[in-house]
Design a protein that fits this description.
0% strand, mainly alpha, rod-shaped
Length: 83
């Protein structure tokens, strides 16, 4: 039964490191950790790391979108700026 707790913990740790698939892995860690958190200590750790990683991934996506929008706006308005 320890394997499911380790799956949650490993998915949570990898989701903190890899930004591309981090959101999907953090959700997997969150769901698996929630399912088995009363039975295994590793599952509880994976559950907590999954929640933290989900929050960080959503913030990372929001900042990336904000930077893309700000860069696009500055490129569009660049010829119209008069100093």
């Amino acid at each position: 039964m320890r394997e499911k707790g380790l799956v949650s913990l490993i998915c949570g740790c990898i989701s903190l490191i890899i930004p591309c698939f981090g959101l999907a892995l953090s959700i997997v860690a969150w769901v698996v950790g929630k399912t088995y958190h009363k039975e295994e200590p590793f599952s509880k750790a994976g559950y907590i790391i999954g929640i933290v990683s989900t929050i960080l991934q959503v913030l990372w996506i929001a900042v990336t979108i904000l930077l893309i929008v700000l860069c696009a706006l500055s490129i569009i308005q660049l010829p119209y700026i008069h100093y």
